[in-house]
Amino acid sequence: MTQGGAAAPLIEAAGLRKVHAPRGQGAPTEAVAGIDFRVRRGEAFGFLGPNGAGKSTTMRMIAAVSPVSGGTLRVLGMDPAVQGAEIRARLGSVPQDDTLDTELTVRENLLVYGRYFGLPRAVVRERALRLLEFARLEDKADEQVEALSGGMRRRLTIARSLVNEPEILLLDEPTTGLDPQARHLLWERLFRLKQQGVTLLLTTHYMDEAEQLCDRIVVMDQGRIVAEGSPAELITRHCTREVLELRFAADEQAGHAQRLVAAGERVEALPDRLLVYADDGESALAAVHATGAQPLTALVRRAGLEDVFLILTGRTLVD
Amino acid sequence: MTTALPTTAGGPPAVPSPGDRAPRPAAGPLDSLVAAVPALREFGYWMRRYRRVWRGSVVISVVNPLLFLTALGAGLGKLVDAHHSGHLAGTPYLHFLAPGLLAASAMQNGFVEGAFPVFQSARARGNYPAAAATPMRPGDILAGHLLFVAFRILLSGALFLAVVAAFGVVGPLRALLTAGPVLLTGLAFAAPLMAWAVTVDRQSRLNGLYRFLVMPLYMFSGTFFPIGQLPSWARPIAECSPLYQGVALTRGTALGTVHPGAATVHIVYLLVLVAAGTVCACRGYTRRLHR
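Above: the input entities. Below: the structure tokens describing the complete assembly.
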């Protein structure tokens, strides 16, 4: 409060819930089960979690296209249930599946979308030129979207979402299904936007994406927030500095899991390998060897968000 | 590497940032209208798509009635007129058939424009969800699309009427008057269909409805023969069909034989379908797009 209006959160959720009506005779499903978070202006905020964690549903509620079932949600200080259209006018939205019209050209997609915001024709035409450049699609401007690659379509979707000069950009799984080169190009474009002062909200189940782009992350699982913080904070708070990955012959792993507990601070057993959490992976490996265990392979790496999720939920992110 | 964004020569940053907005070029009167009436933006989208295919659609809308009226009206009609049995009350078969076919084609256009594009927009093509992410409300999206459907029904109907006029069945004034019943008939099918199509999850359901509802209506609603020819048990059923109401109104208007009382019944019947369809569609669109 002391810092005045600028410090007011751009998005604020308290006890936010979403219950989907049952299909047929099933029970209603609670996609989002009471979550609290605040997003500040200029921040890059990530929802991390596996499929079905409630990330997309949360994004849709923020985007004012999904009515809130319970709790409160304020976006840009407004209630989505009352001022949905006003909120949407100031948001950019990149849905999980591209909703481009593949029969229209790249430029036409931008023009049509800009018109949906009620912008004058001349304004939209001028912005389309700049956005084509931003998306590196100048050469493709008058080609049908049908002819574009997945990465190009994604860039066009992002460019399209910027046509109304949004204050907040919502990105639902922005790089899922793209090859590494296309992902890096997208990250670089998103990073530029962030530096321009656009607040980014994104969902992902990729650790590296969250680590690259997000200042702050909430980890979601089964409709709840299980942890919150910067990527580095989350790792130091919930995890050791390093991880030792051990592979054993298939029938030996179960026996070793018990005996190796002392080698690190914690041991997690995955179907194909054991993870030993320790601040010093090399000395943990020495301790393993000292027990007489002979892993087929041993690898020491830095701990990441994947490990945080595994420790918090007992499950891996990508099933 | 600098963090500056690519700019167009001398222009503002390539990427918009809040508070650093480009000076706006002057907005024209059309821009103000589109800014005030969101449905026109959706209409604009459909017109942009239509611009790509309008030539073919115009040719079909002229050739189709030309073939039907030549073969059935002028060809088969000669035979019918020669064995005239009094069922047509002295009306040449061509004159009886043309307005019937016209109303039936309005129904078909209402179906084709109201069912498939709505299904695709809500699902695979995704243009409805895309529009719903903007300030457009589901009702705006529906209204704009419905406006385009009305435009298509009216355009096809006008071309059909031009052919009918060329056959000498109606004069220019009656042709103009008949456009109203044609639009009403088409929308009486389109609006309820849009309400349904936005909820449908498989295209095969749309095809099924076409085969089992539209085709029988087409055949047995007084299009090709007066429903007095039907067995007595089937007549009341045929009279209740929306296409029969549309055919009767269209034929009565085109030939100048309509009674004001009967016309009122037809018009109210069709208007109720349009209104009920639109209300249901508005709910269905909201449920689908704001889940």
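Note for the figure: Residues 38-289 of chain B form one domain.
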